[in-house]
Amino acid sequence: MTHELTKETYESLAEFRYQLKKFLHFSDSEARKVGVTPQQHQLLLAIKGFPGRDTATPRELAERLFISHNACVGLIDRCSQLGLVTRISNPDDGRSVLIKLTVDGEEILQRLSEIHLEEIARIGFLQVKQNVPD
């Protein structure tokens, strides 16, 4: 079933894509300013933001980042060399490891996340609940 799309619909889709690209450009730039690559930032966020836990397997991370398992392992290796992540044994599966943020990784991710939340609030894209003490 095909619907005729209006000029307004195309403009809305184009604007949405533009705003996404603009935010991603902002995100990449901010990551570089704190000394990590955009991919390293994405890895840190994927680990900390993994549903239900603060660790993830390389395979889970590869899926979240839309990269191959081998590329993900290389990214994890580079982040490990920088002291941003560490490997721990997986208590549920001795054949795999879990990736966890280090204190340095946590600090960088928190700084970047605060910057990103400010930008998101500035552009009015999303209301995010934060745990702020009264």
Automatic annotation (TrEMBL):
Keywords: DNA-binding. The keyword DNA-binding applies. It comes from the Bacteria. GO terms for biological process: response to stress. One of its GO terms (molecular function) is DNA-binding transcription factor activity. The keyword Glycosyltransferase does not apply. InterPro entries: HTH_MarR-typ, MarR/SlyA-like, WH-like_DNA-bd_sf, WH_DNA-bd_sf. Residues 6-134 form the HTH marR-type domain. PANTHER family: HTH-TYPE TRANSCRIPTIONAL REPRESSOR YETL, TRANSCRIPTIONAL REGULATOR, MARR FAMILY. This is MarR family transcriptional regulator. It comes from Robertmurraya siralis.
